[in-house]
Amino acid sequence: MFSKIIVHRVGNKINGDSLTLSQEELKLEEGMAELLEDYFLGSFKSEETFHFYSDTYLVNNPVYSAVSEIFDDKSKFLWESENIAKHLFEAAENPRVQSGELFIVLFEDESDRPDKVDKIGIFKTEKRESFLKINPAEETFDIEKDQGIGLSKIDKAALIYNNNKDTGYVLSVVDNNKNGDMYYWFEDFLKVKQRDDEYFHTQEALMVYKDYITKQLPQEFEVSKADQADFLNKSINFFKEKEEFKLDEFANEVLGDEHVIESFVNFKTDYEQDMQVNIAEEFPISEAAVKKTQRHFKSIIKLDKNFHIYIHGDRQKIEMGEDDKGKYYRLYFEKEV
Q1: Which of 78, 89, 137, 289 could form a Cys-Cys staple with 202, CB 3.0–4.6 A?
Q2: Which whole number is the average pLDDT over 162-177?
Q3: CB 279 within 8 A of CB 201
Q4: CA distances for 260 relative to 218, 223, 263, angstroms
Q5: Concatenated DSSP letters for 180-196?
Q6: Whole-model pTM?
Q7: How confident is residue 278, by pLDDT bands cut at 50, 70 and 90?
Q8: Interatomic CA distance for residues 313 and 237, integer angstroms
Q9: What local confidence, expressed as pLDDT, does residue 315 receive?
Q10: Is 207 within 8 Å of 232 (Cβ atoms)?
């Protein structure tokens, strides 16, 4: 349960909106704290984590500096929450960014666990939903329309864990309403990057391999769409079945051919340079990252506008040929499902 909460109103300065700062913390009625906590934390579904960064020194990151002060001294909560709101107000450089309420919340871990950790939540609401209010009036009812904040999911959220301070803390970040500006929350306001952990390495390794199979491999080698689908299936199965990724093991089991392996290693090196990332050659595989990324590994052969063939398994049960009617695929199976 959170111990402190305050709300500010942050407008879009480009559109002439104002910034309204609260002078005291919220006082909540019974049951409201539980409702708000579920609302705030309900959108954090992914295990993807981030860290603050700065182009110079971490202390020059305004949000990092503010949350550091709060973690060190809880009495600075009100003052630093205002600094966070002012920074968010200044970060709006796009007229499409919507105004909204900014909640700053302190979650103090009161457990007896040795690994207990305090957290600070930064939540912004933007969208408004229409709803009906029905009130009794003598022998009938009155119905009136109003607008408010829907509790299905938060628009923007960041949860900062009080650990790894020297490397920019650990954050979970959500942006469910990008308003046509994908940089406003992650870059302009928070200034965060994805953490270099097992989730990151699993995700990046899968994506660089997918890019290689779908883009580079057909340019260098004579491979069919069925072969590409087989490579994609074998790769995602490798990540599902193994607990640890080892590049040599992956190359031998999935790629097989030494020329293809050499080609992939060169492609991976170029990818790392172009994207300015470093994908480790050995790392624990993140099950959550595999589950999230596998939806991009759709092994589909599209034939004109008539048919789609979905390939999930044995490559040997599909053959390609050509006769006087045109090109064809022959599929072998044991039973219809």
Answers
A1: 289
A2: 94
A3: yes
A4: 11, 11, 5
A5: T-SSIIIIIII-EEE-S
A6: 0.78
A7: confident
A8: 10
A9: 67
A10: no
